[in-house]
Design goal:
With about 400 residues, the protein is an alpha+beta fold. It is about 30% helix and about 30% strand. The protein has 12 helices and 21 strands. α2 crosses α5 and α2 crosses α8. It is elongated and about 80 Å long. The site of adenosine-5'-triphosphate has 15 residues, from β8, β13, β16 and α8. Adenosine-5'-triphosphate binds next to β8, β13, β16 and α8.
Amino acid sequence: MRYKHFFTKTLRAAPKDETARGAQYLMRAGYVYKELAGVYDYLPLGLRVIENIKQIVREELDKIGSQELLMSTLQNPEPWQKTDRWDIEKMDIWFRTTLAAGGELGLAPTHEEPLTNLMKTYISSYKDLPAYPYQFQTKFRNELRAKSGIMRTREFIMKDLYSFSLDRESHQKFYDEVAEAYKKIYIRLGIGDDTYQTFASGGVFCKYSHEFQTITEVGEDLIWFNEDKSVVLNDEVLNDEVLKDLGVKREELKSAKAAEVGNIFTLGTKYSGAIGLEYDTKDGKKEPVFMGSYGIGVSRLMGVIAEKMCDDKGLVWPEHLAPYKYYLMGIGDEGMQKAEELYAGHEETVLIDDRAEVHPGEKFADADLLGMPYRVVISENSLKEDSVEVTDRKTGETKLIKTADFAKELA
Ligand code: ATP
Ligand code: MG
């Protein structure tokens, strides 16, 4: 990518009401644009991060037999009426719209109802089970308060997976597989070390659900953990009965602020029962399908990672998420010429700062703000050594690498 092709510019200031540091950087560096409170656009750089996150999630979910689809954002009220969730009193986060021809539609806050209804077309026998569809989709929620940039918004990108199983036993097996896949996903996203599977409140069909909580000062949640962090629970379930159940004592627990980056939930037959998603068993009986739902906050993750991986100069993306791996710049005519030679053919991994009129100092500041993992500088000094200066954005460590070797690394 050429810097000159960006239509975005780095900004000196972020909107005043944006207090979280990562959120400020995302706006100043041109990753996101704030339309209004809780509503954001993903600009070209930000979109590349979103796509990188999605790809990691997609690979791990495909490995456990899930299948991607894309459902509509406009939703029919009918299945929601069957589960009694169309009622604003019961679901206060609805955004609604009206049809020109008359009648109301919902703007997707989640997809249990429409997907359960859709599955009635495809599931009728035990032979049709299991099914594990998932999607990356824009959800709309009329949240009372938008918070911390893209961490809590009114329109956001969620990965939602749903499982349709024969019975509780086969459901549980998949549920555990999803938990393992999630752990791999958070490790690959670079937040494995401080993301915990926590006990959270359950429903009629399960004592507990599980959340995946990443420790961060800007998180809205409070989690509690024991010494070796083998038991981690949400504040909402911290009571005597649960403590006894999990075999921990109140005095041994410490707390930390965290952000929910995913959750897994046993739905049982709550939705299938209400909507009439049944299958014929081997002995010709009818049973409701046993369901689960599994969310990951894709856009929230980008916000959480920006918050956790930044310093006083800007963003610090891990390699697998960065829009580009290298920020390449030459100083002086000869340096810029050499940079062009190295850049040729590597448009996907290299961002070349080809602005002739911009002072190197400003380019250094932009490189730090944008946060690509490596800054590569070709200066008069490095040219004398037939080398390029490679600086690790995270550690600040600079190495002189022979130009030919760096060209090989790029290739
Ligand atoms: P929260 O408790 O944070 O409101 P939730 O329980 O409503 O989350 P789900 O409905 O299960 O969450 O959504 C799945 C995931 O989507 C969450 O784990 C979270 O990461 C993300 N998410 C939920 N609401 C928002 C939002 N308003 N903005 C951005 N991401 C969100
Ligand atoms: Mg919510």
